[in-house]
Amino acid sequence: MIKINLLPHTKKVQVSNTEKQVVLCLGLLFGTCLIFLVLILWSGGKVKELERQIEAEQNLRQILLSQVRRINELEKKMEQTGSNLEAIRQIRAIQQLPIRYVESLVQVMPEQSLWFESLNLNREGTLEIQGVALDNQTFAGYVDRLRESGYIRAVSTQRTSRRQVMNQDLVEFDFRIKAGPFLEHEQESSH
Fold first, then answer.
1. In which domain, by residue range, is 61 found?
2. How sure is the predictor about 92, in pLDDT bands with cuts at 50, 70 and 90?
3. Which of 5, 69, 85, 106 is the most exposed place for a label (fewest CB within 10 A)?
């Protein structure tokens, strides 16, 4: 069986080009707005993430700055301690020198022929000595041996004179010694 449709065909409504263009423009506008909205939301998230990173970096910076201040304080304390230690070393080195000076005097002193009556050491390292010797040769030999000592820089005789002690003719002396270890430039200049 064959069916024949005698009804008129319904014509499709043709959409005009203008309507198509309007729909297309609205679709593009909607798509563009949607893309802009996505970009704005994405960049807003990135901005917030960057702000969090900046805040974290600033917190870290504050922590590091406080540690740097602490390290600087410790370095100052270490420097001060180092200078204190150096001062102590110098004091300890100098502390023994007066004993070395007197030891130098006594080591080269002839026994039973030279006696000290007074000995005075001032801050500059000058020793003032008064005493008696059996004769001039004993005193002169003593002074020569002192000049060879490593802790005696200079010897200067202030005076010598005769003195009677218990019917013996002795030589009374008064001399000064510049005490202190020889420095290398002093040894070179004395040669």
1. 29-95
2. confident
3. 5
